[in-house]
């Protein structure tokens, strides 16, 4: 995994359609105002209608408190804009360990890990691939397939322009990397808070003669 690849307002490669697209258009600026990024909006018919909004901080972390902050910020905006015609349950979540990959920086960050990728066009005679993310560039990436059938190409090159969906596959290595990254992000956040507190204390003790 490559560190420090995220850009705050980086556009998503994978976006929604229909009412989910309308919801995304409404909530994305609000989420960005909280120094976070929208990952995905998805509506489902489970337990009535559920609107799930995935978000994350720019470092890829997302705490329970962050989810609560997003919910408080976007709920009144959705009430005013009213993009959904019937009652629904709003669910705010982190992307999770086996997360969707929706930005170029996601592919850079998780290069070398196992993923499932769907293309919008046929590539090497198929649209669905499972394999390791390799050779990420500005225009696309390669999938080194972990279980190619006999006679099939081992590597597929997928342009970002043809990407329909991508998601990490849960593996022991991915879990270790995710836990390590989360620990490092929390340590960095704690250090920043301590530095900010020390600066405020120094300012308060700076008495002029």
Automatic annotation (TrEMBL):
Origin superkingdom: Bacteria
InterPro entries: Ribosome_maturation_RimP, RimP_C, RimP_C_sf, RimP_N, RimP_N_sf
A Gene Ontology BP annotation from the UniProt entry: translation
Location(s) in or outside the cell: Cytoplasm
Ranges that cross the membrane: none
Domain Ribosome maturation factor RimP N-terminal: 26-98
HAMAP family found in the cross-reference section: RimP (MF_01077)
Family membership: Belongs to the RimP family.
Descriptive protein name: Ribosome maturation factor RimP
Source organism of this protein record: Hoeflea halophila
Gene encoding the protein: rimP
């Amino acid at each position: 995994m490559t560190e420090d690849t995220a850009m705050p307002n980086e556009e998503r490669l994978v976006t929604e359609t229909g009412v989910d697209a309308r919801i995304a258009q409404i909530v994305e600026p609000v989420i960005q105002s909280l120094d976070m990024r929208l990952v995905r909006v998805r509506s489902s018919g489970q337990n009535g209608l559920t609107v799930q909004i995935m978000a994350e901080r720019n470092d890829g972390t997302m705490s329970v408190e962050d989810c609560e902050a997003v919910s408080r910020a976007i709920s009144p905006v959705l009430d005013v804009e009213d993009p959904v015609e019937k009652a629904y349950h709003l669910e705010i979540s982190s992307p999770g360990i086996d997360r969707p990959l929706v930005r170029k920086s996601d592919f850079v960050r998780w290069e070398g890990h196992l993923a499932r990728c769907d293309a919008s066009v046929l590539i090497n005679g198929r649209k669905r691939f499972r394999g390791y993310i390799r050779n990420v560039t500005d225009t696309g990436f390669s999938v080194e397939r972990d279980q190619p059938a006999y006679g099939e190409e081992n590597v597929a090159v997928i342009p970002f322009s043809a990407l329909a969906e991508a998601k990490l596959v849960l593996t022991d290595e991915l879990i270790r990397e995710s836990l390590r990254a989360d620990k490092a992000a929390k340590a960095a956040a704690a250090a920043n808070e301590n530095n900010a507190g020390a600066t405020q204390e120094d300012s308060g003790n700076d008495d002029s003669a």
